[in-house]
Amino acid sequence: MSHTPDVSGVAALSICESLLLALNDRNILPEHEIVGILRDAAAAHSNDTGQDGKAELHAAVAALINGILEGGNSVRRR
């Protein structure tokens, strides 16, 4: 059986990244606020207690968001 990626999740991530870039490009949100949004999102998953039985998922989501922060994908560094 082949592994099919979560198409909805990948689409949502792409849309959100594009929105963050557009908000920054149009000077609606400054870079530091976009970075703050991403840090808040990562922290929400990092601090999740795992009581929902999805601790691995939350850790993976936090790692992905932190990777986006490190790579600068959602903010055009000026």
Task: Describe it.
The chain is mostly helical and 78 residues long. The chain has one domain (7-71). The protein is built from 3 helices and no strands. The longest helix has 19 residues, at 7-25. The mean pLDDT is 87.
Average pLDDT level: 87
Our measurement of the CA-to-CA distance between the termini, rounded to an integer number of angstroms, reads 44 Å
- General form: globular
Major pleated sheet: none
Low-confidence stretches: none
Estimate percent helicity.
55-70%
Q: How would you spell out the order of helices and strands?
A: HHH
**Percent of residues in beta strands:** under 5%
For the CA atoms, what is the radius of gyration?
Answer: 14 Å
Secondary structure: number of strands: 0
Query: How many helix segments?
Result: 3
Total individual domains: 1
Query: Which structural class best describes the helix and strand composition?
Result: mainly alpha
Task: Using brief descriptors, characterize the structure shown.
78 residues, mainly alpha, 3 helices
Quick structural summary:
The protein has 78 residues and is mainly α. The chain contains 3 helices and no strands. It is globular and about 40 Å long.
Structural topology:
Layout: H1 7-25, H2 31-46, H3 55-71
